[in-house]
Amino acid sequence: MDSMLYSGIFDLPRWGLVAVALALTHITIVAVTVFLHRHQAHRALDLHPVISHFFRLWLWLTTGMVTKEWAAVHRKHHAKCDTSEDPHSPQVLGINRVLWGGVFLYVKATRDREMIKRYGHSTPDDWIERNVYTRYPKVGMTLMGLIGISLFGVVPGLLILTTQLIWIPFWAAGVINGIGHYWGYRHWSTPDASTNIVPWGIVIGGEELHNNHHAYPTSAKLSNKWYEFDIGWMYICMLEALALAKVKHVAPVPQFVAPRTTVDAQTLQAVITNRYDVLANYAKSLKRTYIDERRALRLGVPRNALLLEDIKHSLDRKDKTPLEIKRAEFAEVLAQSHALQTVYRMRRELVALWTRSAAPRDQLVGQLQDWCQRAEASGVQALVEFSRRLRSYA
Q1: Does 381 lie in the same domain as 297?
Q2: 187 shares its domain with 279
């Protein structure tokens, strides 16, 4: 009896069964990040039909998720990120609810058929999708369980299937949607609360680099810095080398030339394209001005100079100074420093440039030129240097 329960076609030791489970769940992670996320939801790359359908089949067997529903929920998440309409924001619903119950929030969102219709466009709609994958999502998981039982025995097969079934709900729906909007580090001042959990995207296929993704959602590559690693991008490169994938978009890498004397349309476009890099460097200018003004006011140099607007997400976790004290410190200097007021105000003006998408291009070029002239006439050294850098974007 025991041999029937624990033996299948392959009689593997325990470590072998663990290795099989990890390998199978890793394939599922790759299918989610490469196919569902980067290919379907964001159109960051094209996949060969053979690879695309393999991922569809695999996800049907291991998760029962419907491509149209997954893409729709994720697209709405980006459209309504960290608002009351976000399907799974820990900033609204609380970290525990999203981390441990993210899968239930996902299922709840998929029941909104109007939302699925609005956000689920351009996903597979062929015969097998309509009549098999979407119509019978649980059949695939049942079939996968039977395959596992025949290969490894009843108990090992069911344990492997259980591992597969909880892997995505916990790591993707829980960890990425939860921790990825609650805790971690941020490169980019995105309007949401997204964070990079760790710089090595291995366990969850590169999705750990979540702030990078929200800054550049249509990028097929989620790593931005030299020390970050996105294993999903590694697989995409391998598929592209085999002519099984074609990358359409990656995050822009800033290019620079000698500072232009006059801002033109190309400068404007370069600034808009690299706006998150622009904001990251502006933050350094604001921090430098903040420190200089504290010295001038004889208030001392703070241990961790932070921007008021970004204080929640750029907070050093080792610094236990209460948030209210940091805000009060910043407000105190801001009230007494004309230079800091200038830098702080001009940051908002700069951001407004790329939020006025309906404005005529010539008007935006003129506003950027005016901004640079005022920055360089301000007498604030950090602002002068930043303006010169701004005129160098190519």
Answers
A1: yes
A2: no
DSSP state of 306: -
- For the chain, the domain total comes to 2
Residue with tokens 């196919």, as numbered in its chain: 35
pLDDT in tens, 44-73: 999 999 999 999 999 999 999 999 999 999
Higher pLDDT, 318 or 217: 217
Has residue 254 been placed in a domain?
no
Is residue 151 within 8 A of residue 7, CB to CB? The reply is: no
Domain end among 187, 214, 247: 247
- Could you tell me the end-to-end alpha-carbon distance of the chain, in angstroms, rounded to an integer? 72
pLDDT digits (tens, 9 = 90+) for 80-123: 999 999 999 999 999 999 999 999 999 999 999 999 999 999 99
The answer as to whether 59 is a domain residue is yes
Structural domain including 306 reads: 265-390
Q: Does residue 358 have a pLDDT over 90?
A: no
The answer as to whether 255 is a domain residue is no
Q: Which of 247, 280, 312 is the last residue of a domain?
A: 247
Residue carrying structure tokens 């970290």:
95
Tokens at 350, concatenated: 């700069």
Q: Residue 309 has what pLDDT?
A: 46
Place of tokens 């160098």: 392
Whether residue 35 is found in the same domain as residue 147: yes
State whether residue 247 is helix, strand or coil: strand
Nearest-angstrom CA–CA distance, 41 and 392: 34
Residue 284 domain-assigned? yes
Q: Spell out the SS3 assignment of 143-202.
A: HHHHHHHHHHCHHHHHHHHHHHHHHHHHHHHHHHHHHHHCCCECCCCCCCCCCECCCEEC
Please report which confidence band the pLDDT of residue 303 belongs to, taking 50, 70 and 90 as the band edges.
low
Nearest alpha carbon to residue 347 among 369, 326, 375: 375
Percent above pLDDT 70 for the chain:
91
